[in-house]
Amino acid sequence: MSSAPEHDADHHGLAGGDHSQWAFGTDFEDPLAGVDTSIPDGVDAHALAQYCLMLGDDALISSHRLSEWASNAPDLEDDIALANIALDLLGQARLLLARAAAADPTLVPLLPPGSPVPPEDALAFFRDESAFRNVRFVEPVNGDFAVTIARLLIFSTYRLAVLQRLVCSADTVLSAIAAKGVKELAYHRDYAGRWFLTLARGTEESRRRLVAGLTLVWPLHDELFRTHAVERVVDGQGIGVDPAVLADEVGVLLEQVFSLSGIDRPTLPAMGLVSGRSGRDGRHTEAMGRLLAEMQVVARAHPTGRW
Amino acid sequence: MTVRGETSQPGRSVQDEWPLYEIFVRGKRGLNHVHVGSLHAADDEMAVRHARDVYTRRNEGVSIWAVRADLVVASSPDEKDPLFAPAGDKVYRHPTFYAIPDNVPHL
Predict the structure, then answer these.
(1) Backbone region of residue A16 per phi and psi (left: phi > 0; alpha: psi in -120 to 50; beta: other values)
(2) % residues pLDDT > 90 (chain A)
(3) Sheet containing B63-68: which strands, arranged edge to edge?
(4) What is the pLDDT along chain B (107 residues), one digit of tens a residue?
(5) Does residue B17 belong to the interface with chain A, where contact is any CB pair within 8 Å?
(6) What residue ranges define each of the domains in chain B, with the CATH number in brackets?
(7) Which one of A77, A211, A283, B71 has the fewest CB atoms closer than 10 angstroms to its CB?
(8) Where are the domains of chain A?
(9) d(Cα A240, Cα A230) in Å, to the nearest integer?
């Protein structure tokens, strides 16, 4: 950006000369370009990679679901809002999957020789369902707008709490990704919270749909706070956070929204595990296979394609 | 899902459409807020959120004003001549009738 100041003048109007927001994403080829991806001392690289997969897959699957609202939202303004949120999460997914691939290259699916597909894309588009580590909470079909708002409120409140802790991660890459994500998640939570309140206090119909939506998404909510073995390891090494310790904090925040909205916290039992395994172990809901089929079909048809 | 402009239940006192807001954005280097467009929103706060999503996605702004369009007082096109034509022939109101000194920059 130092050369040709005359030409740059136009762009400065947009960027304002403040380039701090371009800490990531200036290089379309390598999302972690210029970032030191070496593994800190005392950190289990495999556990770090697994943990990044979990966080990255949560964002990726959630992003895909939200992107399905494009052109389908109740109005143009929310169409763009949901697409923006989806794009924020996709950006987080890209960085986290790139971090996972850098920490443990053996996780990345093998592609035909000469394939230009970068590691983070290979992880997103060429893994099978059982290799995804996202919570089941983000998988089910969108339902109506109220279902999406109920799900987004819970997910963004949970994820913001996670990323706020990760800002202090011993892994500097994870810490930087979290610092970027915190600002994005704060907006997602604000957006979902406002809509939650608006629907709850709107018409009889909007309230009915919101309560139905909350009831629908609630049984998978407990899984967000279930500690997985990988999370216990990364928590012990100072690079990750045990989600169980966030349950109270997130519960209080949700309770505030519920109380303002005049809606009771659901008391539904949690959806059971499958042979003791959940989304974090690669056991997913029925909707996941169809979601992946749609998300991956084009990339898989052209494994050597250039995009 | 309801199509915009369609009420969910006929006969209820639900507005057909959200109110229209005019959006003004101040850029990082701009001194004043500039009108960038309009949008619909359910309430005032949501208007600011929507403006952020619709009009500042490419890092355009640091401040947003949202104004209910029905609160804007506008001149009428019918009044164009009485309001503006008289200024058309008063070229002496432009500060152009003096020599610009060479050593004063940025003029």
Answers:
(1) left
(2) 79
(3) B34-40, B20-26, B63-68
(4) 344 444 444 444 556 789 999 999 998 887 899 999 999 998 999 999 999 999 998 887 899 999 999 999 999 989 888 888 888 888 888 777 778 888 888 76
(5) no
(6) 20-74 (3.10.20.520)
(7) B71
(8) 44-301
(9) 9
Distance CA A243, CA A226 (A): 7
Query: Do B75 and B81 contact (CB within 8 A), yes or no?
Result: no
Tell me the chain B residues in contact with residue A18 when contact means C-beta distances shorter than 8 Å.
Answer: 28
Q: Is A183 an interface residue toward B (CB < 8 Å)?
A: no
3-state secondary structure of A211: helix
Q: Which of A14, A144, A145 sits opposite B59 (nearest CB)?
A: A14
Return all residues near B97 (Cβ < 8 A) that are at least 6 apart. none
> Can you spell out the DSSP letters for A251-303?
HHHHHHHHHHHT-PPP-PPPPPPBTTB-GGGT---HHHHHHHHHHHHHHHH-T
Q: Indicate the pLDDT class of residue A4, thresholds 50, 70 and 90.
A: very low
Is A216:A204 a contact under the CB 8 Å cutoff? no
Does residue A250 surpass a pLDDT of 90?
yes
Q: Does residue B12 belong to the interface with chain A, where contact is any CB pair within 8 Å?
A: yes
Please answer yes or no on whether A16 and B27 come within 8 Å at the CB atom.
Answer: yes
CA nearest A158: which of A199, A134, A184, A189? A189
**pLDDT one-digit tens code per residue, A108-154:** 999 988 889 999 999 999 999 999 999 999 999 999 999 999 999 99
Tell me which CATH code domain A44-301 carries: 1.20.1260.10
Counting every residue written for chain B, the total comes to 107
This prediction's pTM: 0.84
